[in-house]
């Protein structure tokens, strides 16, 4: 955008420095979203049972949840609850930030690339923990995608 404007020739020498600032600011902004995404990570124990399918086929959430102990189920419920709270706070903050539309859209895309795959995998495995009540699993995959876009 700047390169094609009248400012292009004036700012060309400073372009590497500007790009470094942009990368640093994006990294700083994404740090808070990394904290949100941490709730979607879980420990995988490879010696506990059969390996989950890696063929791209759907995971049977009900069977996956049924195999969890009550302590593990409570931990998953807490992860969903904490994710929902943290996610909602960050979305609200993002909406209040005053910045150029292109910058806001670019940051939203970066957030979507980070959160969506993690949430999708987490939702595929554990959405039955809620039994469809919406108490812990606030968003399905399409709802989350709609919020992120």
Automatic annotation (TrEMBL):
Keywords on record: Transport
SUPFAM superfamilies associated with the record = Cullin repeat-like (SSF74788)
Its Gene Ontology molecular function terms?
Answer: phosphatidylinositol-4,5-bisphosphate binding
Where does the Exocyst complex subunit Exo70 C-terminal domain start and stop, copy by copy?
1-148
State the GO CC annotations. Answer: exocyst
Question: InterPro entries under this entry?
Answer: Cullin_repeat-like_dom_sf, Exo70_C
Q: Which residues form a coiled coil?
A: none
Biological processes, Gene Ontology terms: exocytosis
What family classification does the UniProt entry report for this protein?
Belongs to the EXO70 family.
Query: What protein am I looking at?
Result: Exocyst complex subunit Exo70 C-terminal domain-containing protein
- What organism does the record attribute this protein to? Aureobasidium melanogenum (Aureobasidium pullulans var. melanogenum)
Q: What is the lineage of its organism?
A: Eukaryota, Fungi, Dikarya, Ascomycota, Pezizomycotina
């Amino acid at each position: 955008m700047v390169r094609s404007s009248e400012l292009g020739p004036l700012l060309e020498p400073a372009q590497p420095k500007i790009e470094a600032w942009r990368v640093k600011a994006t990294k700083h902004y994404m740090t808070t979203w990394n904290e949100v995404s941490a709730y979607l990570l879980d420990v995988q124990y490879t010696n506990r049972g059969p390996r989950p399918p890696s063929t791209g086929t759907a995971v049977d959430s009900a069977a996956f949840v049924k195999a969890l102990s009550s302590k593990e189920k409570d931990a998953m419920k807490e992860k969903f609850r904490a994710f929902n709270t943290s996610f909602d706070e960050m979305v609200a903050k993002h909406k209040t930030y005053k910045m150029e539309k292109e910058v806001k859209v670019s940051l939203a895309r970066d957030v979507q690339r980070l959160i969506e795959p993690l949430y999708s995998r987490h939702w595929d495995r554990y959405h039955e923990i809620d039994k469809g009540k919406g108490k812990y699993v606030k968003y399905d995959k399409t709802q989350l995608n709609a919020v992120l876009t």
